[in-house]
Amino acid sequence: MHSPTEEPSLKDVSIHEKIATNSGDSEKAGVERLERVLTTQDAVNERFGFSPEERKRIMRHIDRRLVLTVGALYCVSLMDRTNLGAANIAGMSKDLVLGVENRYSIISLVFFVSYVLFQAPSTVVVRKIGPRHHITTITVLWGCLMVGMGFVKDWGQMAGLRVLLGVLEAGFFPSVVYLLSTWYTRFELGKRNSVFFMVGCVASAFAGILAYGIMQMAGLAGLNGWRWIFIIEGILTVLLGIAAYWLLVDFPDSKRATWSFLTERERQWVCARVEADRGDVQVAGFSLKEYLKAALDIKIWGYAIIFFNTTTITYALAYFLPLILTGNMGFTVAQAQCLVAPPYAFAGFVMYFGSWASDKYRMRGAVIVFNMMLCIIGLPIMGFHPNANVRYFGVFLVTAGANSNVPAAMTYQANNIRGQWKRAFASASFVAFGGIGGISGSLVFRAQDAPHYKPGLYACIATTLLTLVIVAVLSVTFWIENRRADRGEKELETDEKDYQPGFRYTI
């Protein structure tokens, strides 16, 4: 037994934990399987000698440095890709003549074409050069691009800059999803994903109010108010990207980073507990064949389609909610900019409650079903009720359900795969399909369908129903596979040479 001051070897800990995990009777299921995992974690804690208070302190420290930093970066990422709606009703549509030939929809969707195409390479790059260099560099660059959008002369220039924005932002979200999954055990990840995305929801909630305030700068330096939206928000992005270089952390197993915020023994403890949980901390050398082999796992595409369905709704709301509030519900521009905020704030509460329940009761699919039921109820209300105030209530339900499903789907996917390169491929494909959902969300609410936008509403209802079907199929499959593993008939997720005995899917 190592003393608390001795530095244990990660290799020794990994072997020790795998033996501990494999020592149980493979035919025992349910509670006994969970007890085996908890016992394994207890062995890690005993080996490193940290008290419960010290372990909580370490995790709080990681949360502050990692979750809050990437959450703040996601704030500006989400604002920068979705501020077209606010700019459009602030005068951009008139200045750039966006009201003809679906030009607004075009500049909305071209972002996602490059965003999707550059997803897959990003998780390989971030593993090679580290998230601190990768994420902060692209953040500063796209902030500069946003400033440039404030000076475009026609809609073609705006479309070109949106394509470049997609190239840069393509590296952010999959890298963050991947990074978060490497730091936390499976049943710690739900709340962290939720807080990360909830910070983005706060940005969405107040982006309209911020945009309305910036609009008041119209005439300053001879620029219209919508131009100042891009300029000011771009400057904020650049400043935050620079600050993140000193705040963001690297992968826990990385030797590149300066671990001033954790001691070596604390870092080893973080790695050991993740290794005990799913056995994939140590990364094999990159192999394109092994990386692409993950594409043969149909579950990965199921997770990706769930995310496509979800982002179709979230991006449709982000780009068209101001137009729906003004055109369909009769609110003024000022009212619409401010009324965007409350539904997103409500979504934050629903999101955190769902993630808390998801981690506490160790369930994932049920939370996704709950979120989709909110959308199923809210979409018809939002689209078809004769009273505008009641339709606005429907906006609350749809916004809460769709946005809460983003971290829920992220955690569902992260809990049910293992292996670093498979995780990297899954993160890239997952977020890429989210980008395709952005293309879909940019197109479903067409100008010719105003003011009721019935085809868009039907499309959102269809994607919601498809998500419910996929979760049902996956849940039944997971239950069957877990039962087979409990009977000792097979080991799950054993594609890589080094795997964790006793792995079970989270339903």
From TrEMBL:
Predominant location: membrane
Record-annotated Major facilitator superfamily (MFS) profile domain positions: 66-484
Iron as UniProt keyword: no
Keyword terms, alphabetized: Membrane, Transmembrane, Transmembrane helix, Transport
This protein's record includes keyword Transmembrane helix: yes
One of the Pfam families matching this protein, by short name: MFS_1
Annotated Gene Ontology cellular component terms: membrane
Gene Ontology molecular function terms on file: transmembrane transporter activity
Signal peptide from the UniProt entry: none
Protein's cellular compartments: Membrane
Protein known as: Major facilitator superfamily domain-containing protein
Species: Bombardia bombarda
Lineage: Eukaryota, Fungi, Dikarya, Ascomycota, Pezizomycotina
